[in-house]
Request: fold
Amino acid sequence: MAKLAIVILNWNGRRFLERFLPTLESTLPEYAEIVIADNASSDDSVSFLKNNFPNIRILEHTENEGFAKGYNHALENVEAEYYCLLNSDIEVTEHWIEPIIEQMDANEKIAAVQPKLLSYDRRDEFEYAGAAGGFVDKYGYPFCRGRVFSNVEKDHGQYDTMIDIFWATGAALFVRSYVYHTMGGLDPDFFAHMEEIDFCWRIKNAGYKIKINPASVVYHIGGGTLPKNNSYKTYLNFRNNLFLLLKNLPEERLRKTFIVKFFLDQVAAFFFLLQGHFKDFTAVYKAMHDFYKNYDYCKAKRNTLPKLAFEDTYPKSIVFLHYFKRKKIFNGESFS
Reply:
């Protein structure tokens, strides 16, 4: 059994595999292996891998199961002490693995760690999907050190500290295999987007820590499967954010939070309409409709989960701080 299994969930990503797998292979310590789980790609990903990387193990799914279910299915068949869930559009750097494994070996209460995530195209900037560690505000809006909404900072080493974070990016997520399976893995009802935030919230509920290790650096293209302006991504983000809150918020916060959240989502839909993004406008309402259609099912799910003290989320609204008070930078404790 390998100490670390780096598992890449691939869907029509041959161009990324060809570009980034050689570098990934060159950085592997002797205790690590690479596994590719193919989500029923329609391109030539699988044949390309078999012809060019015969030593890499391939798991072939018969259908596109999405990010969450696809990983759950794959990891049922992977034995290792640690997993690294790695996007196919990630370029790794030398010695990106060792600092994180050493950190997790030293403290068994650390369940998950992410590297510092920088932009592949703008290499002195943080990358949107995780930057230097993720957090969530009182209404479920995710943000990062290095990225608040669309405001992305340049990396000057200002966040080169190992701190506790609320969520670690699913683009490059190191996690103890025992914890992954004990917590039930990623929630397949999310399909894709925000499933790692839900997973990390459950990890914190169970008393584990989640960390950022900036000694490990990777570069992320981002939007490799669904571009940022894709209306289906808009739908998933709005629907899954509601799932996230209903599953994990303490009971006493639910009613007030959803009243405000309903209003904020309406405002977002209105702005999409003003900008001429009609598909995004309708995606928001479809997300709300599908959430409420599945409300009882999701509410029942929360009853099986331990609940987190609300104070562990950021206690203010980043919508108010960012758009009304013009706060653009979060240092891990406060905005400026």
